């Protein structure tokens, strides 16, 4: 079971990284609060995530030069961040395709059972 938990934790990390990179690439001027809302996580977790992405060299934070709010940042994907997003996207799609295939099989089985039991035509 520890391997399954490790895999799940990795998948969650990949999902959060993927979603954060995706959001930031689409809108680098998102505030941490806006990013937290978009990701469905707390502001504290968002701050931790951004710091980790910056530490890994995937994102860089730059002050807005034109902003009146000098605490405002633009979170820009680095070339490494763009490469990482591409790799994570491939893993994400592969995992989602496997989930879809498994769900499709399960739905077909349930449909066959329901038809056999006369619950549906």
UniProtKB/TrEMBL annotation:
Q: Name one Pfam family in it.
A: HTH_24
Q: Which InterPro entries match?
A: MarR_EPS, WH-like_DNA-bd_sf, WH_DNA-bd_sf
Coiled-coil ranges per UniProt: none
- Show the SUPFAM superfamilies listed in the entry: Winged helix' DNA-binding domain
Query: Could you identify this protein by its name?
Result: MarR family EPS-associated transcriptional regulator
Species classification: Bacteria, Pseudomonadati, Pseudomonadota, Gammaproteobacteria, Chromatiales
């Amino acid at each position: 079971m520890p391997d399954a938990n490790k895999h799940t934790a990795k998948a969650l990390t990949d999902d959060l990284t993927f979603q954060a990179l995706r959001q930031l690439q689409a809108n680098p001027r998102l505030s941490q609060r806006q990013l937290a809302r978009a990701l469905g996580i707390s502001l504290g977790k968002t701050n931790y995530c951004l710091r980790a992405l910056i530490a890994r060299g995937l994102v860089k934070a730059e002050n807005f030069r034109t902003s009146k709010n000098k605490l405002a940042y633009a979170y820009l994907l680095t070339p490494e961040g763009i490469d990482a997003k591409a790799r994570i996207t491939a893993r994400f799609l592969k995992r989602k395709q496997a989930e879809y295939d498994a769900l499709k099989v399960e739905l077909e089985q349930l449909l066959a059972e329901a038809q056999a039991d006369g619950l549906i035509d």
